[in-house]
Amino acid sequence: NPMLGLRSIRLSLRSTGMFKRQLRAILRASVRGNVRIMFPLVSSLLEFRQAKMILMDVMEDLEEEGLPFQRNIPVGMMVEVPSAVILAPEFAKEVDFFSIGTNDLIQYTLACDRSDPTVANLYRSGDPSILRLIQMVVQAADKHKKPVNVCGQMSSEPRFIPLLIGLGLISLCARPQAIPRLKEVVRSLSMTDAIRIAQHALSLDLARDVEHYLQGELVRLCPDLDEGSGF
After folding, report:
1. Distance CA 220, CA 230 (A)
2. Which residue in 27, 77, 79, 162 has its CB near the most CB atoms, within 10 A?
């Protein structure tokens, strides 16, 4: 399975020349706007520290050349594999921010390639294990006062928005075409409702029960929302 192979931060650490050129370009651009660096598919503290060390080397090179860059650029990581969730309390001491990548997190946790039609039915955003993993990351980030956002298909589906907000996620990445529907959900939602929905969803045992419950709550909150789009 190529999804379990040499990709993302693994490829970057294997191809340090390419990685340094990418980091150099990001640092050079940092003087012109709000830039952050995020390492993808990090599965161990060693990977993050190695990537951070290479970043420091590139910064030293730029300093020696007298080229400007933002020295205190925020450096974070994607949380896309279960090991990163388990080690989230340790990662939270070293990163500036987290971004939970739900697409990969779901497929790696549930051991189902989302591009394989023979196991596509096992890929469920509402699986209780996924909800608990997200909660674990948010709790670790909150303890160390580190911001955390969520991206992936899950954060573009209106029915999951109350759940994510109730879990403590207030920064979401979504497909542009989904934003109007997501705004409607957020405007119809109170924090009290969001927390109640998240707590009840966490008490359910099956993905289908979680998803049916969230769908029902969405209809209650936004009865006029077009169900034919965004699900």
Report:
1. 17
2. 79
**How crowded is residue 95: how many other Cβ atoms within 10 Å of its Cβ?**
25
The structure tokens listed for 158 are 């209106």
Show the tokens assigned to 215. Answer: 């769908």
Pairwise CA distance, residues 35 & 27, whole Å:
8
Which tokens hold the place of 7? Answer: 């990709």
SS3 111: coil
Q: Which of 174, 12, 43 is nearest to 105 (CA)?
A: 43
**pLDDT by 10s per residue, the chain, length 231:** 667 788 899 999 999 999 999 999 999 999 999 999 999 999 999 999 999 999 999 999 999 999 999 999 999 999 999 999 999 999 999 999 999 999 999 999 999 988 888 998 999 999 999 999 999 999 999 999 999 999 999 999 999 999 999 999 989 999 999 999 999 999 999 999 999 999 999 999 999 999 999 999 999 999 988 554 443
48 Cβ contact partners less than 8 Å away, ≥ 6 residues apart:
39, 42, 77, 91, 94, 95
| Tokens found for residue 231 | 């699900």
Place of tokens 């469920």: 124
Paired sense of beta strands 75-79 and 148-151, if any: unpaired
pTM score, two decimals? 0.92
Provide the 8-state DSSP code for 172. Answer: B
